[in-house]
Design goal:
With 148 residues, the chain is of the alpha/beta class. The protein is 16% helix and 42% strand. Strands 1, 2, 3, 4, 5, 6, 7, 8 and 9 form a nine-stranded mixed sheet that branches. A hairpin with a 2-residue loop joins strand 1 and strand 2 (19-24). The longest helix has 13 residues, at 47-59. The radius of gyration is 15 Å and the shape is globular. The two termini are 27 Å apart. 27% of the residues are buried.
Amino acid sequence: MKIPGPRLAVRALILHENRLLLVNAWGGGVSDLWCAPGGGVERGTSLPENLAREVQEETGLTVTVGDPALVNEFHDPGGSFHQVDLYFRCTITAGALSPGWRDPEGVVTERRFFSQAEMAGIRFKPDSLPAAAWGQGILYDPLEPIIR
């Protein structure tokens, strides 16, 4: 049995009025975990193009994709899942969060901006998310176990 290689995904760090946009990490109310919007990379499309598409689908926002800010990887220690997320700083160029918006894939059901202080009161992944969003340069967050 061949074990699949790591999955590659892109995620957006979108600060608006010094608040970070996060989405629910698991659909269907499975978890209260939050993460940055984004998703899997499609072959033959650039990382920024993939990210702009994912942000549009999950939030209804149009963004400009900027510099990379974080490389994070996580895995299921008891299984074969392993994902590498590349986080990019992004700027909103059109749109606003709307209660009527629906993710076409139905995964994202909640979208919200959080201040840095509010992040202390929620569960989110990766642990380095605030440092990447409000910091500078590029960070690397090594392999961590997936959680729900």
